[in-house]
């Protein structure tokens, strides 16, 4: 017999919600997967308790993930080759938009998340409190069973994500999230891999979307991870920095400016130290490149300063 815990919240959230009583909401659960044949059947069946629309995105798995998911009753989207979790999530959003979903729930396919917590995630969206709900392992202090080394790595990634987004998230790497339909067009999906979790939060914060966090339970007695945690952490950290450069004109411009200034100055220093051993052509080459670097560097730093001033003015104007 299935516990009534989830269904009663579900019932409260949907049936007793006076804010949007006019039509039944279409809630779709998407499960991005790579080689999850052992767990995916249970994830799909338990999610189907809450919605008929369970979609598994099988990202070129080498095992029977797609077959098991289909047998369990999910709709399966298959990538012929492995494209990464970010690519899978991009596909999920496109599918949800086409299917006219009201709420999209993302959940991992490795059995670490509890489908009975789907109602907890969607409730703040239905009540109008949030556009996005982030299932967090660390919202309530000391209530988590996350191994210590993971907690440390997650902490570092949280700090990076929070600095870039200028927001305070307690779990930047959570794969258990819910999104209302008004967010479906808000993401760029530039990160195709695991960096997508941070990228989405950074973009949500920049778009001023209401993000609420709710405490979730994550299991660590199942296999749990596709990648080695260190490789995973370093690659996500790299992608957060990449997101910063891709999305922040000021930082990119400033970085290029400083780099060019350094290059130009180094070139001139080089000339000053050993000008006589160089051939005429090399001398002309280094001088031209150094001059150009310094001019471009000054232009970039100037642009950086004017952009910052403009942004500061805009922020001050908004207050
Ligand atoms: N679409 C897609 N999903 C992936 C890929 N690698 C892992 N996943 C899925 O992403 C979810 C989280 O991955 P996992 O390795 O467990 O991450 P961790 O729990 O944060 O260490 C699981 O459902 C995986 O099956 C991938 O290359 N593509
Ligand atoms: Mg996992």
TrEMBL record:
<keyword id="KW-0472">Membrane</keyword>
<dbReference type="InterPro" id="IPR029044">
    <property type="entry name" value="Nucleotide-diphossugar_trans"/>
</dbReference>
<keyword id="KW-0812">Transmembrane</keyword>
<dbReference type="InterPro" id="IPR050256">
    <property type="entry name" value="Glycosyltransferase_2"/>
</dbReference>
<feature type="transmembrane region" description="Helical">
    <location>
        <begin position="249"/>
        <end position="273"/>
    </location>
</feature>
<feature type="transmembrane region" description="Helical">
    <location>
        <begin position="282"/>
        <end position="305"/>
    </location>
</feature>
<dbReference type="Pfam" id="PF00535">
    <property type="entry name" value="Glycos_transf_2"/>
</dbReference>
<protein>
    <submittedName>
        <fullName>Glycosyltransferase (Family 2)</fullName>
    </submittedName>
</protein>
<feature type="domain" description="Glycosyltransferase 2-like">
    <location>
        <begin position="29"/>
        <end position="185"/>
    </location>
</feature>
<keyword id="KW-1133">Transmembrane helix</keyword>
<dbReference type="InterPro" id="IPR001173">
    <property type="entry name" value="Glyco_trans_2-like"/>
</dbReference>
């Amino acid at each position: 017999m299935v516990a009534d815990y989830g269904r009663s919240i579900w019932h409260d959230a949907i049936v007793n919600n006076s804010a949007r009583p006019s039509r039944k909401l279409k809630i779709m659960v998407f499960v991005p997967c790579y080689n999850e044949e052992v767990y995916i059947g249970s994830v799909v069946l338990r999610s189907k308790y809450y919605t008929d629309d369970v979609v598994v995105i099988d990202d070129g798995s080498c095992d029977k993930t797609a077959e098991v998911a289909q047998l369990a009753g999910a709709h399966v989207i298959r990538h012929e080759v492995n494209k990464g979790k970010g690519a899978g999530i991009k596909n999920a959003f496109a599918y949800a938009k086409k299917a006219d979903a009201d709420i999209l729930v993302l959940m991992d396919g490795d059995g670490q998340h509890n489908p009975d917590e789907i109602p907890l995630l969607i409730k703040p969206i239905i009540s109008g409190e949030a556009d996005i709900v982030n299932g967090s392992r660390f919202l309530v202090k000391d209530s988590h069973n996350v191994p210590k080394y993971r907690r440390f790595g997650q902490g570092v990634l949280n700090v990076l994500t929070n600095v870039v987004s200028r927001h305070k998230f307690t779990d930047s790497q959570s794969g258990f999230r819910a999104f209302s339909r008004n967010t479906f067009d808000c993401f760029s999906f530039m990160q195709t891999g695991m960096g997508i979790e941070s990228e989405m939060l950074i973009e949500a914060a920049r778009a001023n979307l209401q993000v609420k966090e709710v405490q979730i339970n994550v299991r660590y007695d199942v296999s749990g991870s596709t990648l080695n945690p260190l490789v995973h952490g370093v690659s996500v950290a790299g992608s957060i920095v990449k997101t910063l450069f891709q999305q922040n004109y000021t930082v990119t411009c400033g970085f290029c400016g400083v780099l060019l200034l350094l290059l130009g100055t180094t070139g001139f220093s080089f000339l000053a130290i050993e000008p006589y051993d160089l051939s005429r052509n090399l001398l002309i080459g280094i001088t031209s490149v150094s001059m150009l670097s310094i001019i471009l560097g000054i232009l970039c730093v100037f642009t950086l300063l004017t952009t910052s001033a403009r942004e500061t003015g805009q922020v001050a104007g908004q207050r």
